[in-house]
Amino acid sequence: MKVRQRIEVSGIVQGVGFRPFVYRLAHGCRLAGMVVNTAAGVTIEIQGPSEQVLRFQELLPLEAPPLSRITKIQAQPLPLQSETEFRILHSEKTEAAHTLISPEIATCDDCLRELFDPADRRYKYPFINCTNCGPRFTIVRNIPYDRALTSMDAFSMCPKCQSEYEHPLDRRFHAQPNACWVCGPQLQLWDRHGRTLDCEDPVQAAAERLQAGAIVAVKGLGGFHLAANAANERAAQVLRERKRRVGKPFAMMARDLDAIRRVCHVSADEDKVLISPQHPILLIEARSGNDIASQVAPGNRYFGVFLPYTPAHHLLFAEGPFDYLIMTSGNLSEEPIAIDNHEAVERLGTLADYLLVHNRDILCRCDDSVVRWSKGKLRQLRRSRGFVPVPVFLEQPLTSVLAVGGELKNTICLTREDQAFLSQHIGELENLEAYKFFQEAVSHLQQILEIKPSAIAHDLHPDYLSTKWALEQKDLPQVRVQHHHAHIVSCMAENRIHGPVIGIALDGTGYGTDGAIWGGEVLVCDTVSFQRAAHLSYVPMPGGAAAIREPWRMALGYLWLEFGAEALHLGLPFMREIDKRRAQFVLRMLETKVQSPLTSSCGRLFDAVAAIANVRSTVTYEAQAAIELEACLNRDASVQPYTIELTDCGDHFEIGYSDLMHQLLRDALDALPPGIISRKFHDGLADVFVRTAIAIRERFHLDRVCLSGGTFQNAWLAARMENLLRDQQFLVFTHAKVPCGDGGLSLGQAVVAAATLETTRRT
Fold first, then answer.
1. What's the pTM value of the predicted model, to 2 decimals?
2. What is the DSSP string of 274-329?
3. 3-state secondary structure 115-184
4. CB 46 within 8 A of CB 4
5. Whole domain around residue 80: which residue ranges?
6. Which of 194, 431, 692, 761 has the lowest tally of Cβ within 10 angstroms?
7. What letter would DSSP give residue 617?
């Protein structure tokens, strides 16, 4: 008996070879019908013997292309038609967009073989791609994902490329960036003033200059990199000076896996991450005695390494004798990555000696993603290229909300039904360029997803640029969301759980409901509300933001609380480096409470301990003191953790510092190695938060704990706390798909706002 079915497929099903896969499957099952891209995904109509239609439906999800991700399949019967063949139709756009756009994918093995095959017509073509690899999100103007709606519409395909593009059984069938030497984008090498250099092979010329120690701005998929030879100490130092990046580590691209293994301790799981289709930057423990320039990652036990992910990257390594290149974002520190050629000349001309540019427009800035493998999971530290715009799938549908994130590591989030779309990493909203990028991201994400939000969620802090922007949008209601509540709900949303939960939120800065700076919080919360069940005791921040840049100020603040004016005369090593007049001035600020806001920040506690342990008393980038305190931690020693007091204050618990400061002072004056002090502090901090969770469980009868906040990027603390909590029979939930830091904040804001709106509607 013949039947006809319409099958609607949702998910990442465009630009990944899905229609040719359906075409081949239909032919194999001897079925007639058609397949077409729509704004909702892919629509298939199949007709033939009922047993073959059933076989087609069974094989559809099982044999789908590797880069596709099917989220929903719906089928319904249709009347029979008089057709005998299966066809691929042109895309339709008749409704609101619900399809998912694929993220950028690293060059596939098939394309790499062609790239280095002298007999292939795309031999050494730096923009080779197919349906299994290449640019996606960064070249899309709108959907459906068709060439006319991408930046490739500027290039008319030659007859050979057009033939591939139109042939359903070809690997490049409807590969929208399809091109070749004859008809596609081209590379040029420019000097820093934007003048084209006369060279036969721009890649070879760029590689020669990199080997000689020059800095080259390289245009990639989501923007420019600043590249330098990672084994050249002078080149790395010059790049630091020009980029004004004093101590923050650089990312490093390596020729291949063997090259990474020579300088890093790489596990089997980390191997898989490095060669995954996303090719993210992976933090891996460095080997001692490696040949990498000391200026690549000073004071850090990890390298951020990744593999070439564009054809141009592979060609650079093929032409150059180097095995490692610094590949850092093409920007001045804290500015957004440059994407336009002439913008790059203007912004990067003083940073780079040369620019390797191309004439395919980047429509959306997108930095590299940064990840870490920890406790059996891939943990996102910066979620961007390769992962955006794949949504986080929520437990239940929500009203559409735009959440605008915080001030640092900003991302935005748009929700649609049971999907939450986080933007690429936007960064620090501290200057006009970053604010413009933020506005671009809001506009672009709404456009390609065709989502009109019903409300805007923002942080409580009135001075955040994201908050100010939200408050200017008078046409939509606004929902204020406390920073640490958003952190915990972000963890809940990712793990698809309901409240109430015990939420441990540890970070550097978050505006509290009492106007103080929070950051060491234990909440009892659900998606609508929270109760502050415990927190680190308040301590003054002498000089406000200056105390973040100078951890010695925080150390003096903690010691002053315990020892008063004697804090200046304790004989601690870090105090010998501080000008006595400056120290006296800070002491007066503490005594008079002038410019000394109160904080419960865990990040500031790390700063103080780092200074007292003589690890770091001033910083040049965010969390540097905490990072170096973890880096020096002695992992092999057997130590007794510091004892940190927990006080029941009736309606909440407070974690105090008195015992900790006395123990720290004793060990620092006894010249105990910083690695031992760090280990005792880390373990003591984990212990006290576990004791706090136990006390809250007894009071509230809860056994689920969510861990969130930037402090949990500290792998040692996160793993120890998770293990101890599980030993105490807690159910522990952590981040993996979104960052635990402020890069995941917008997800929590969106879910809190949607839940708040729904509660308001009901009542």
1. 0.93
2. HTSTT--EEEEEBPTT-SS-TTSSTT-SEEEEE---SHHHHHHHHH-S-SEEEEEE
3. HCCCCCCCCCCCCCCECCEECCHHHECCCCCCHHHEHHHHCCCCHHHHHHHHCCCCCCCCCCCCCCCCCC
4. yes
5. 2-88
6. 761
7. S
Give how far Cα 282 sits from Cα of 34, 275, 372, 428, Å.
42, 11, 6, 21
d(CA 720, CA 723): 5
pLDDT digits (tens, 9 = 90+) for 365-408: 999 999 999 999 999 999 999 999 999 999 999 999 999 999 99
The answer to whether residues 126 and 357 touch, using CB atoms and an 8 Å cutoff, is: no
- 398-437 pLDDT, tens digit each: 999 999 999 999 999 999 999 999 999 999 998 889 999 9
Token pair, residue 180, equals: 């070749």
CATH number of 59's domain:
3.30.70.100
Provide the β-strand partners of residue 44: 7, 35
670: Cβ contacts below 8 Å, ≥ 6 apart:
none
Per-residue tokens: 688: 């006290």
321 located within any domain: yes
Q: Total domain count for the chain? A: 3
φ, ψ for residue 456 (rounded to 5)?
-120, 130
Structure tokens at 234: 């002078």
**Tokens of residue 632, six digits:** 């020096």
Residues 721 and 598 in one domain: yes
Nearest to 639 by CA among 603, 592, 678: 678
In angstroms, how far is CA 417 from the centroid of its own chain? Answer: 23
pLDDT, one tens digit per residue, over 347-365 is 999 999 999 999 999 999 9
Same-domain pairing of 211 and 63 = no
Residue 752 lies in a domain: no
Contact 75, 50 (CB under 8 A): no
Phi, psi (degrees; rounded to nearest 5) at 521: -115, 145
Q: Is 117 among the domain residues?
A: no
The number of CA neighbours under 13 Å toward the Cβ of 52 is 17
Where do we find the tokens 């618990």? Answer: 653
**Are 328 and 210 contained in the same domain?**
yes
